[in-house]
């Protein structure tokens, strides 16, 4: 992990376009989160910035939240196979061992992805850092039984966790 070079104070001084660019990838293919959070600066520290970003996501209309959820790739999915993941997603999935799945694990994850997407209408999302493939597969199986609203909220909570981890790498405390 690299030492973060940005500070919340420096981010607070940026114009909106530079602020959004500096936070690119924190929320997968969804610059609108940073765009809408920008007017709420200055940010005292990384935690305040994260709180504002997550609060912005949580306060967004449901259609925007759903678009954010759907912007995430499937775990070990077609985009990963084709090399089309963002730099952040590629690193995170590889770190969880998803790039080294056995054929059986890959097929199981593919089947779980399909069942999950058919059930909820969006991809399964989990902050994979610190998890092993078996942990991820178990979570996929367990969460398939969640009620729709519970899983929608869980997807947003996982996105917030992913954003926190990504922000930790870029912004000093």
From TrEMBL:
Pathway: Purine metabolism; urate degradation; (S)-allantoin from urate: step 3/3. It catalyses: 5-hydroxy-2-oxo-4-ureido-2,5-dihydro-1H-imidazole-5-carboxylate + H(+) = (S)-allantoin + CO2. Its EC number is 4.1.1.97. GO terms for biological process: allantoin metabolic process; purine nucleobase metabolic process; urate catabolic process. It holds the Pfam family OHCU_decarbox. One of its GO terms (molecular function) is 2-oxo-4-hydroxy-4-carboxy-5-ureidoimidazoline decarboxylase activity. It comes from the Bacteria. Residues 13-168 form the Oxo-4-hydroxy-4-carboxy-5-ureidoimidazoline decarboxylase domain. Keywords: Decarboxylase, Lyase, Purine metabolism. The keyword Lyase applies. Coiled coil: none annotated. The keyword Chaperone does not apply. NCBIfam families: UHCUDC. PANTHER family: 2-OXO-4-HYDROXY-4-CARBOXY-5-UREIDOIMIDAZOLINE DECARBOXYLASE-RELATED. This is 2-oxo-4-hydroxy-4-carboxy-5-ureidoimidazoline decarboxylase. It comes from Zoogloea dura. The lineage of its organism: Bacteria, Pseudomonadati, Pseudomonadota, Betaproteobacteria, Rhodocyclales.
